[in-house]
Amino acid sequence: PCAKLLDLIVGKEQQSILDRRDLRALIQQNCERGEQQPCSGKKRGNSAKRGKAGGVALGQIDHDETRLVVSALDFCSQTASSCLRGLNEVFMLDEDEPVNDSLLTRVRKAGYSRVPIYSEHRSNILGVLLTKDLVGVGVRPDQTLKHWARSRSDQARTENAAALSRLTPWW
Predict the structure, then answer these.
(1) Which of 35, 48, 69, 90 has a Cα-to-Cα distance from 167 of 20 to 30 A?
(2) Alpha helices (runs of H) in 78-137, residue ranges in sequence order
């Protein structure tokens, strides 16, 4: 009864509902304020940042957490087309390229763990090369990628079946 009377006199409490843009701005503002004033007091977590003097105090959000939350809030507005690349922009290899120093250097500099392999034209993708399979491979200018992969597959088949299961043949 008293609560209803107070609601009539004072009015009901308005719930503040933040939209994504406001919540994003509030989180970023909190992080910026935390970076300007070094944290003190009880530390939390096991990360290196939190273990150092001037780390993040309990209840505060550090820079990495802010980036994660802001990215999660922005994720709903992402479209698939904004994340995709055209075939002309993708790093690919032709199956008929020789396994030479130039090829191994290009793959290493590209920095990808998986490289699409195509035949004749880029839209004819045959499969994916796991770049970790190139570790320890020497220059073999007399072998193309296709022949190298087949010889690896044959070798794995004779050595053990488990090694065969991790290969990704594309022929």
Answers:
(1) 90
(2) 80-83, 101-110
